[in-house]
Each structure stands twice: as C-alpha cells, then as structure tokens.
Amino acid sequence: MSTATATSRIPHRVKLNLQAIVGRAYPRVIGANREPSWIFFEAILPLLGIAAYVFIYKALATRALGVILTPTPSAPYGMCGPNPCVDAAQQALFQANSIANTNALIATVVLGGAMVAFWLNVLWSMASQLYWEKEIGNLQLYMMAPMSRMALLGGMAIGGMFMTSVRAITTLVVGILVFTVTLQLGNPLLLLGVFFVTLIALYGMGMMLASLYLLWGREAFNLSALLEEPIFFSSGFYFPVGGFARFGTVGGAMLAFATAIPATLGLDAMRQIIVPGSPSLPIPIPWSQGAYLTPDLEFGLLLVLAVMFLFLARYTLAYLEKLARREGRLTSRHQ
Amino acid sequence: MDFAIETKDLLRIFKPSRKLFKRKNPNGNGAPEGPVTALENVTTQIREGELFGLLGPNGAGKTTLIKILCTLLLPTAGHAYVAGYDVAKDPFPIREKINMVSGGETSGYGLLTTRENIWMFSQFYGVPSKVAKARIDELFKTFGLWDKRDAKVRTLSSGQRQKMNMVRGFVTDPEILFLDEPTLGLDVNASRVIRDYVMGWVRRQKGKTILLTTHYMMEADEMCDRIAIIDHGRILACDTPENLRRGIRKDTTFRLEVDTLKSTSMFTGMRGVKNFSAKNDIANNTTSLTFILEDESPVSDILSSIQSQGSKIHYLQKSEPTLEDVFISMVGRGLE
Amino acid sequence: MSSAARIHWRSFKWAAWLGWEMDSNWTEPWLFMVYSVIKPIAGAFILVLMYTVFALIGQFRDPDLFSYIYVGNAFFIFVGNTLFGTFQVIQSDREWYQTLRYTYISPISYYTYIVGRAASKVAVAALAVVITLAFGALALGVRFEINLAQLPIFAAAFVLGLFCLVSIGICLAGISFMTAKHTHGLAEGIPGIFYVFCGVLFPLTALPEWAQSVGRGIPLTYWFDLTRRLLLPPNTISTGLGFFNDYEILALLLASSLIFFLMSIGIFKLGEFLARRAGKIDMTTSY
User: How many Cβ pairs within 8 Å bridge chains A and B?
Assistant: First the structure.
C-alpha cells in the first residue's frame, strides 16, 4: 500500500473504530437499563455489604469511646490509649480524635465500596467478557469484523464504566448521607484526574486480562472469582492500605504487589485528597519508614500504569488472537 | 483471472489444547488426546460473482474451511486468499469485504431489540448509521421480520433468529459472503425465502460472491453455480451440478426398497458395484438402497444377496443420476 | 423407600455429584482445595487489617470484639457458600450452561435438585471454616473455650443453621426464576443483608433500633449468637440477646428455621409458577 493510500485510510479507520466503540458500548448502556431489577441487585444490595464494614468501625468506635469516657477508680478521666487520661482536656482531645478517626475510616469504606463496583466490573464484565462472548457465539463475529480489537474492548470498557458509575455514585451518595461522612474537596482537579486515570488504568488492566482469558476456558470464571477478595484485601478497599507497613517485610511485600493494581494507588490518593483528618495511613516509601507517597506522585504512577496496561492489552490481544487463531480457540465453546 | 477465493494445498491440523490448569481426566480415559487432520491439501478457486457450494457430511471439514477463509482460524500449512489477500498475513483488508452467517447461531444480546442487534454489528463494519438503519428496515421486510423489529432477541423463535442472522450477514453489503448451513432447521417457507434472496443477491449485483455449505442436496443443486464435494478434509470433486451428474451418467443408478437388512457388507467390493448407500427406515421396517453400478450386470447378484437374507423387495427402479448419487459415488455413503 | 422418597434421593444424589464435578473438575483436587480456602482467608484478612488499622490509629485494642468479629466472619463462609450454591443454580444452568430446560422437565424434584447442587459448596465451606478458625487460634491469638458438655447443643445449632441457610437459599432461587442474570449482585448483596442485620461482624446493639428488630426476625442472628456463645470465652460485649439462655436461643432458631422452610416451599413454587406463566423458565439475559 502506498503512503498516500495509507494516509487516506487513517480517517476511515478512526471513524470505523469510533463507530465500533459506540456500537459495543450501546448494549451495555441500553441493555442494562432495560432490566429494572438490575438497579436493585447491582446498586442497592451491595450497599449492605458496605454498611457491614461501616458498622464494624462504628462498633469498635463505640467501645473505644466508652473506655475513653468511662471513669474508673484508677482512671478518673477515662483511658487515653493504653494509659489513663491525665485530665479532662486530654480526655476531650482523645474523644475528638476518636470521632475524627472513625469518620475517616468510614469515609475510607464508603470510597472503597464505590470503587469496588469498578473492580468487580473489570473482573466480570471485562476480563471474563471475551470468554463469555465466545460462549454465546459473538466472539467469532467480532473477530472477523474489520474494526480494531482495542475498539471492541474500549466499547466494552466505556459501556461498563457507564453502568458501573450508577452503582458507584449510589454507594457514594447513600454512604455519605446515611453514615453522615464528612469529606473535604481541597483539590478537585487532582481528584478528578486521579479518578479518571485510575479508571483508565483499571480498565486497561481489564483489557489485558480479557486477552489472557481468551486462552482459558472455564478456568476464567474461577480465576475471576479468585481475584475478588484477595484484591479487596491487598488494595485496601476497606482500610487505609498504609496499614500494611506495620506488618514488616510481609506487609511491605504486600504493598509492593498492591501498588501494581491501579485501585490501590487511586484509592490511596483519593482518600488523601478528600478524607479530612490525620489518620489516613498513606502508602509509605520505603515501605517501613516515614516518608509517604503523595497524591501527586500516585497520580504520576497511575499515568504510567494506565499507559503500561493499555500497551500491554494491545500487544497481548494481538499476540493471543493470533495464538487463538492458530489453535482454533476463537470459536470452540464450553472448553 | 481474479478469484474471489483461492486456496492452495491448505492443511489444517487440530492439536490438543493446552490448559492453564491441568484438568482431571481430560478425555475420560486418561489417554493423551491426538491431533486431528480437518483439511488436507485443499486446493480450490472460486470466481468473483459465483455462488459456490461446499457439500459434505458432518466432520468433512466444511466449517473449518470457512473459518480459515473468514480469518478466524490459521491454516497449519498452505495458502488461502480472499479478495486477493492472504488470510494469514492480511486479515484486516479481508474483514472489510466479508461477512458470515452460520445456521443455528445464537449470537447477539438478549436484551437488545432485533434492530439494535443488527445495528450494533453494522457499526463494527463502519456502515454509516443512517444507511445501516435503512438497510435493516428493508431486509427485515424482505425476510418477513418487520413485525419483530422491536422485539427483544431473546423472544425470537429459532427460525426468526436465523432470519435475523441472515439480515446481519447482508446488512454490511459484503463482497464475499460465507453461508454455513444457513437453512439448518428452518421450515420450508423460511428456507425458500432465504434461498430466493441469496440467489437474487448474488445474481442481481456484479462482483458478489457466496460460499455456501449445506447438507441439503436439493439446495446445493438448485442454488450453486459450482459445487465441491468434500469428505475427510479432502475435496473429491469440483464442477457444476450438471457436469458432476454427467460424470456418473455412464454409470447405472438403481434404487431399491427392501425389508430391513441385517447387514449390507456383502455389497462392499461386489463385482460391478462402484458404490452404494443404505438407509434404514425403522418406522416402516425397510431399507432404502442406492447403487452406482458400472453396468446392469451386478443387479442379479444384488437381488440374490438380498433374498438370501430373507428380505422382500418392495421396489426396484433404474433412474437418472442425481447430485446425491454423485455424492454416493464419491463418498460411499449418503449425507444423512 | 417410597417412590417420592426415591425421587428426592435420586435428585439429591445426582445433583450433589453434578455440583461437585462442576465446581471442582476444572483442576486437580488439591488445587481446587487451595483455591477454595484462599477466598475466605483473604476475606478474614480484610477484617484483621481493619481491626489493626483501627487499633493503631485509635491506640485502642479490643481483643473481645476482634474475636467476636473473627468467629462471626469464619462462620459466615457457610452463609456465602450455601446461599450462592443454591440461588446461582438457576442462573448458571439457565444462562451459562443452558441446561435448565432439560433438567427442569426431567422427572426429579427440582427443589431437592437445588439442595443437592449446593451440597458440594457446603462441604468446601466447612473445610474453609475449620482452616480459618485454626488460623485465628494459631496466628492471631483468637481464644476459644469449648465445653464438651455443650457439644450436642452445638451440633443441633449447626444442623439447624445449615437447614435454615438452605431454606433461605431456596427462597432466593425462587426469586431467581423471575430475574435476569444478576449473579454477582446477588452473590455480593444477599449475604450483605445477613452481614448487616444478623450481628455477624458487630453486635446487634450497634444497629439502630429498627434494624435490631429486623435482625431478631432472622434465624441466622440466633445461630451466630449461639455459635459464638459455645466457642468463645465469656466477654464484655453486649449482643442484645443476653436475656435469652442457650436453650431459648436454640428454640428460637428451630422455630424460625421451620418458618423459613415453609416460606422456601411457597416462594419457590410461586417463582416457578410465575416464570412458567411469563415464559422465563429458560430465558437468557446477556448484555
């Protein structure tokens, strides 16, 4: 093909791929909203799981406050940590700190709960999707169509983000209102930047996993199921992930692993930006010492992760598509 | 001459797939799974504007060939060209020119309407949205789906679903269309509508090519300009239906219906018998036999063999060869 | 054995076999076992970290509440697995394997079939619970205090708890007949109801009064309370159920389990009837 022809085809390819993105996003946006039960099952019910984590912190806080505020013969001003409070002022300070800490931790859970929606969407509607498409017979039709495979994945991602945003926003709004969480908005631009780059990196990771899952059969389902709780845990969806640093080498290794998952950095940065109060326990560098990853640095790292995952997704998919064509796996069902 | 489709010494071997995790008893008996040759040295040329048929029993390699030509599967060896492009090296330009419809396919999203589903697929081919919608409406009317245009896909019957798949195939107005058993399981009327449209589409317009696989002899005979007979991954013959029939016209074709035979092995290798097929009809307790003979001399031997089993002959007829007889002559059995 | 009993036994036996095969045959048994315990252990770790972070920030250690949370979470593995094992049968057979229509028209008890399909998940959950509890005792300092004389009451409570869980799962299965594919929302959300209202991870008293009343209407609340009473040493936690003795709790568990069992039959039959009427028995969702 001559250079001139190649150049003239660029707008054609761009148009084709944009159309493909819209086409693939469409069923997710329209289809999901056609099934009203979806709102209940995907947006309302998950709130309960989040509420349970909130109540754990509330229960712990209630008992802690009881200890701070209850005078005993040996501690007439209650207990301030492991020692008796020296006077009413110290007791009041501890009480105020305890309330602020609880708010910060509950805000952590609410924010994490909102982001859980995206992680689950990435796992179940991105990573496993190509395998599912193969099962229902769509994959072969996609693979013989002329659009870029990244456009296909991009459409899935955009549709998924849209669907999931409903759940995430519900969680956030209900969480803030019901649990009376106090948030601050010091740097809205950075917050938006971190949020969107986190999503891009997260869905880029989903695209990469989708390609890998193309090679696997029913193992894909089990792998997705396996990646739920361990990632909730390692990415600190329900607690400040900096807490790992208190577990020595094991905690440090866990943090090192977790920082490769975009949700870890994104959540930590967003918490640092919008959760008021001191005890946010951000990710320390090096893992056991006093310096911390700042939201700016985390934003930068997320950008790197986003580019890396999209790049990996592009090449993994191209490679694995070729492999799947060679081995005849694009069309065989129920492997 | 430009060929729409061309294959040279095409070979496809399926090897057992590798798994991420080892599964217990992969094939039930613990024995390793071996490679399977699905296509062997397939060489064929399909001209632009042709409606080309591929006729063969289950497992003959028809679908494998279509998958290779649709860029879904790579050949193990040999070459295949579609619209002048190599399927292994240049899949993207091919994809802009082709589409494929399989019989019994269940693609699409159950919660979308039929129109939305087709529209979505049209977008993957870059068809402008307005053009796509106009074509969808026109095709829905042609295929008798107009009443179902706003029905959700999950509510369609299998026949309606297959018609929707046909619309999906035509909506992108491909240069080359692959139809893999497109009338599988459809009733007579639905099959008729599809056959008429397919024949009209390829003949009405210049430069359109169709590769059709089918089980139905009548369908192949009626629709195809040329037919390739394929079995065990090899193309046994390729010509117009008339020429294929003419090829065995010098042979003699006999049809018999007899009481159910316990065995038909005595006909194998019988002097003068080129090939034969036998089909039991359990309900009527009969066996239908078709013999392709070099001449009429083996008839008496055949009748003696039948009578020696105590089987009564219901009728015996000498007839003009059909496409099915051609198939029997080459493959050694009928399609069903 | 009567012919009805034979049908139920056949349904259960083959469904249990099928459930086990479907759950486990994608890999070697040992790898399946590892896989089956990693998820619940990771779930327990989340709580450990939550507690650790709270203790660090607030300079307040609360081993009683930690043990309460840990044991509640361990036994909650039964809830997640049993509920998922029952209600997902309809969704996976209908949407994924598309075999529901064939199983449904076969001469079996579909109710019992679902119970059978859940059996392998209950068995795997039992292993995960034991491992989680052992890890808590050995690595995290959770102190258990088991009185052998109370083993019969523990066994009775355990059996009743599972019976009740299966009944609730069947109720959900009945609802699943009518809903689109929401396996993940259900898997996450339904256990969430019990997580919040049954005092699994925090005492009932942490909830508002109306929510405590809801909790007292769910049999699992009594199951978790009794289980903890029988496994953990006396502590300072006010559960809101302290005015009942062990036998009263057991009686409440029995009564509420029977009610849920009857409800499960009613809801299952209703869901089945409505799905047949609406033509949704073998629908597929996919989007």
Answer: 107
The pLDDT-based confidence of A332 (bands split at 50, 70, 90) is low
Domain extent, residue C131, equals 3-278
Is the Cα torsion angle A120, A124, A126, A127 positive or negative in sign?
positive
CB atoms within 10 A of CB B114: 25
| Token pair of C78 as six digits | 């039964």
pTM score, two decimals?
0.80
Q: By the 8 A CB rule, do B90 and B74 touch? A: no
Digit-coded pLDDT (tens) for A96-155: 988 888 988 999 999 999 999 899 889 888 888 888 788 778 888 999 999 999 999 999
* Numbered residues of chain C with Cβ closer than 8 Å to any chain B Cβ: 25-29, 31, 180, 283-287
In sequence order, which residues have a C-beta less than 8 Å from that of residue B217 and are 6 or more positions away? B55, B322, B323, B324, B327, B335
Hey, what long-range contacts does B22-31 have (CB within 8 A, 24 or more apart)? B22/C27, B22/C28, B23/C25, B23/C26, B23/C27, B24/C25, B24/C27, B24/C28, B24/C29
Q: What is the spatial distance between Cα A155 and Cα A173, in angstroms, rounded to a whole number?
A: 27
Examine residue B334 and state whether it is found in any structural domain, yes or no. no
- Domain CATH code at residue B141: 3.40.50.300
d(CA B78, CA A143): 22
Q: Enumerate the β-bridge partners of residue B254.
A: B291, B318
The amino acid sitting at C200 is: V
* Minimum CA–CA partner of B38 in chain A: A328
- The count of other CB atoms within 10 Å of the CB of residue C29 is 10
Do residue C39 and residue A229 have CB atoms under 8 angstroms apart? yes
Query: Do B126 and A12 count as a contact with CB atoms less than 8 A apart?
Result: yes
Give the angle subtended at the CA of A227 by the CAs of A223 and A228, to the nearest 5°: 125
Interface membership of A168 toward C (CB under 8 Å): no
Question: Chain B: nearest CA to A115, how far in angstroms?
Answer: 27
Q: How far is A24 from chain B (nearest CA, A)?
A: 7
Number of domains composing chain C:
1
Given B227, B245, B263, which residue is the final one in a domain? Answer: B245
Rounded (10°) angle between helices A88-121 and A262-274: 140
Q: B306 is in which domain, residue-wise? A: 250-319
Q: Give per-residue pLDDT as tens, B46-96.
A: 999 999 999 988 888 999 999 999 998 899 999 999 999 999 999 999 999
**Which residues of A are less than 8 Å from C26 in CB distance?**
217-219, 222
Write the DSSP symbol of residue B152: B
Complex-level ipTM beyond the 0.90 threshold: no
Does residue A18 surpass a pLDDT of 80? yes
Nearest-angstrom CA–CA distance, C83 and C194: 11
Q: Report angle CA B112, B113, B115 to the nearest 5 degrees.
A: 120
